[in-house]
Amino acid sequence: MEQRKQASRAAVICYGFGDLASQFVWTFVGSYLTIFYTDIVGFAPIVVSAIMMGARIWDAVNDPLMGAVAERTRGRFGRFRPYIAFGCPLLAIFAVLTFTNPFGGNSTASIIWATFTYVAAGMLYTLVNIPYGALAGVMTEDADQRNKINTSRNIGMNLGMVIVNALSAGLALRFSTAGAAVADGKGYMTTAIIYGLVSIPLFLFVFATSKENVQPVGEPQKFSFTGTINNLVKNKYLMIVTLVMALQMTAFMGRIAVTAYYVIYCLGSFTMIGLVMTIPSIGGIVGSLFVPYFAKRFGKRNVLIGSMIIQGIGLLIIYAAPFDHMNMVLAGCWIFGLFNVGFPMTLSMVSDSVDYMELKTGIRTDGTAYATYGLATKLGNAIGGSAGVLILGLFGYVANAEQTAEALKGINMVVNLIPALLFFLAAAACFLWKMSDGDAEEIRKQLREKHSKAE
Q: Between 43 and which of 37, 119, 170, 203 could a Cys-Cys bridge form, CB atoms 3.0 to 4.6 Å apart?
């Protein structure tokens, strides 16, 4: 029987700790930094939009560079694991710094500081998470185990979101100035410190338990930025799954960036943030338990399509719900969450696209391919945050004030309707993917034969 290199059971389980750690730093930043900028620091929506989109323009260059550097790294700890171990403390530090405003107010110095800390935090997220994502594709040659590894990651992501969404508002309010009705700058910064300290050992668990079993054949290619981009663009399946991820992440992560506005102003309660944002994450954990079974039975692409369509329906239910009809709002949240299971599928499809490209060209691009996932995550968060606050401004949003009916309509549209439409578009884009799971397995079989001859 053909022997496939596989990850240990401990590695599969502990792999999810990496995305759990990421939620403590990056999801907290994504969920609360926008409202920290507008309601605490006092930045105008257009300033927030400029900071976030400027950072993402830089990421379009930085993320593929990091992927290329990582996949060319050779050392005793492998190509990807060292960046997880040595980068996670710096990521935690800069996640805290984004919630500081040492110059006070919305001065030019404050804008420069906010830009510097946000860009640096994004670069450090890239430094840690692109190697972390690429690691999943080199831990095993077995397709079913890859699905399990990425399911472990999805469970870690949703568990992290449950904790962050359930605790953040309460913690931020608890550590704010006594008597505050909503969280202030001190509360946000203290919460970020706690989360940063928790994230570091979780990342180190991944470093300690994982092993890079799939190695590229031959010496690494000499680095060329244009060559790196060409390798990505020529991989048609990577481009398809990147398009899907960009739409999927803008819908999901972008929504997270502005959900606090919906809960505070539409539902009328800061403390409700925990409930409304936690339910979808709990649903995601439950739904993720069934992903390996359904992926094996129906195929990755079909599971992905179905999950995103039903997520969109859940958001439409929330959008249609009157603001005082909490049962309808929560029902939509549960539907949205239970089918939040598409991320393991897109990650496994990235692995399939890497295998496809290696067979076609002889070049294995784990790092740069997974850079597209990290870039899609940050783009989604930034587009949702920056475009979201701009749209809110157009509808007449005013920070820390009672909103007009028009402004409330704009908030509901940005948080629920637009993400639903993006999920439907992402599901439609999946039909461009023509590689079946059987085709992907045949590609891996040919690669194993090729590697065994080269050894």
A: 37
CATH number, domain at 57?
A: 1.20.1250.20
Per the structure block, which two tokens stand in for 399?
């920070």
Note whether 81 and 207 are within 8 A (CB).
yes
The whole-model pTM stands at 0.71
Long-range contacts for 298-304 (Cβ within 8 Å, ≥24 apart)? Answer: 299/436, 299/437, 300/147, 300/345, 300/348, 300/349, 300/352, 300/437, 301/345, 301/349, 301/430, 301/433, 303/341, 303/342, 303/345, 304/244, 304/342, 304/345, 304/346, 304/349, 304/427, 304/430
Which tokens go with 14?
């502990």
Please report whether residue 2 resides in a domain: no
**Domain contains 215:** no
Element at 16 (helix H, strand E)? helix 9-22
Q: Which residues of 132-152 are buried (b: 16+ CB within 10 A; e: fewer)?
A: bbbbbbbbbbbbebbbbbbbb
259 part of a folded domain: yes
Q: What are phi and psi of 242, to 5 degrees?
A: -65, -45
Q: Is 383 a residue whose pLDDT tops 80?
A: no
Structure tokens at 69: 């550097």
CA distance 171 to 167: 6
Please report the pLDDT score of residue 1 as a whole number: 40
What region, left, alpha or beta, does residue 396 occupy, with left being phi > 0 and alpha being psi -120 to 50 degrees?
Answer: left
**Is the Cβ–Cβ distance between 347 and 229 less than 8 Å?**
no
Rounded-to-integer distance, Cα 228 and Cα 221, Å? 10
* Angle at alpha carbon of residue 200, lines to 273 and 198, rounded to 5°: 40
Q: Which domain range does residue 331 map to?
A: 9-207+224-454
Is 315 a member of any domain? yes
Count CB-CB contacts under 10 A for residue 60: 11
Sign of CA dihedral 302, 303, 307, 308: negative
CA neighbor of 96 nearest in space, from 199, 183, 2, 169: 199
**pLDDT exceeding 70 applies to what percent of the chain?**
93
Using DSSP, state whether 84 is helix, strand or coil.
helix
| Backbone phi and psi for residue 417, each to the nearest 5 degrees, phi listed first | -70, -50
What is the Cα–Cα distance from 414 to 199, expressed in whole angstroms? 30
User: How many residues are listed for the chain in this entry?
Assistant: 455
pLDDT for 5 equals: 74
Q: Number of structural domains, the chain?
A: 1
